[in-house]
Design goal:
The chain has 214 residues and is an all-alpha fold. It has helices at 6-16, 20-38, 42-64, 67-84, 94-112, 126-132, 141-146, 148-159, 163-174, 179-185, 190-212.
């Protein structure tokens, strides 16, 4: 996998509070592990799992709404990663590729589950709540940050979304991918993703307003 561009390296450095050269070294180390794992090095694959399992688990939990299903999905994700790692194009963003597999696994789980609307999607970070922009008014933003009840309400709203809208808004507003990157992960167009995100945000706002007036 190629080293990130200067702009992306800088963004990673700011996000992780690390010097740019440190982030670049981490990217190079990941590329080396992927190469070794694809060649059959089990220890290298285990390191990849350790490096990425938290992301996979968090995304699976948000998509599926409960820990048990998320753990099962995460196991399946890494089984598929192990199976298809030799097909991975190292010019791709590894985590975008990983999220695509995660979304596909969660889609399969949701197809098998009949009562998905009752599940809760956890939003652990305040940053994710702010990014979703689901306040009934901008004046409520601080209250949303401080209120676990409102976070739970947002989680319930996300759980009602169709699979594609749920995946789009979680990847864009919680995981922080660009619209173009989300489109690539979901094998869709940027226009379609923008429409899905817009629709999802409106549905979440409407859901919150309805529940708050009860």
């Amino acid at each position: 996998m190629d080293a990130p561009t200067g702009a992306s390296t800088m963004a990673l450095a700011i996000e992780m509070h690390l010097p740019e050269d440190t982030v670049a070294r981490n990217q190079s180390a990941l590329a080396y592990l992927i190469e070794r794992a694809a060649a059959g090095d089990h220890a290298a694959f285990e390191q990849i799992m350790i490096h990425s399992q938290q992301r996979v688990m968090a995304m699976s939990w948000r998509m599926l709404g409960n820990e048990a299903d998320a753990r099962d999905a995460s196991q399946e994700v890494f089984l598929r990663v192990y199976k298809y790692l030799k097909r991975y194009d190292q010019n791709q963003d590894f985590f975008a590729w990983l999220y695509r597999i995660t979304i596909n696994v969660c889609r399969d789980v949701l197809k098998k589950r009949m009562q998905q609307a009752d599940r809760i999607v956890p939003i652990e970070s305040d940053a994710g709540v702010v990014a979703l922009d689901v306040a009934c008014s901008q004046d409520d933003a601080e209250q949303i940050l401080l209120s676990s009840q409102r976070r739970e309400l947002i989680a319930q709203a996300i759980a009602t979304l169709p699979h594609k809208e749920r995946a789009s808004i979680l990847l864009r507003d919680v995981e922080g991918f660009s619209t173009e990157a989300v489109a690539e992960i979901l094998r869709s167009s940027a226009t379609t993703v923008r429409s899905q995100i817009s629709s999802a945000r409106k549905k979440i706002r409407d859901y919150c307003r309805r529940r708050m007036t009860l």
